[in-house]
Write a structure and sequence with these properties.
Mean pLDDT: 82
CATH superfamily of the largest domain: ROS/MUCR transcriptional regulator protein
Radius of gyration: 23 Å
Low-confidence stretches: 50-60
Order of helices and strands: HHHEEHHHH
CATH topology of the largest domain: Arc Repressor Mutant, subunit A
Strand order of the largest sheet: 1-2
Number of helices: 7
Shape: flat
Amino acid sequence: MSKTLTEMAAEIVAAQASQSNMTSEEIRETLNSIFSALAQIKNVEDTQQGFESSEAAISQAPDKLGAIRANPKRSIRRKSVLCLECGATFKQLTSGHLKEHDLTAKEYRKKWGFSARQPLSSQELSEKRRKSAEDRGLGEKLRLSRQQKSAQKSPGKKKAKA
């Protein structure tokens, strides 16, 4: 009998934890990360082999993905983002994943009607990054840098040559 994804992930994390000291939070995060990776690999294998584990999954998956494709903004969720090309879920759509679909982030946004400034990451991850940037004062630093650059480019009016 084959092992479940949960069992495989638990074995991998147990082996990793036996080799290094890990907090319970690190173990939890690693377990979730490895489980997600195994699930994605299984999804790719199933798709490539052209079969699903059950007929119910075959009939329901296209309907759910089709409904989300009809309204792409629903693909960006609180804790995950759904790839509208293959249906896989991530915390962030990376250029590496989009390359599997022969797309860049810019092309993906254009294809699915997202604005150029729309982050291809979960709302939670975007908020975490925004808060980090605010805490470090990156917005103010950017504003000052832009002011300095514009002041350097236009120090005054140049005299016309005679």
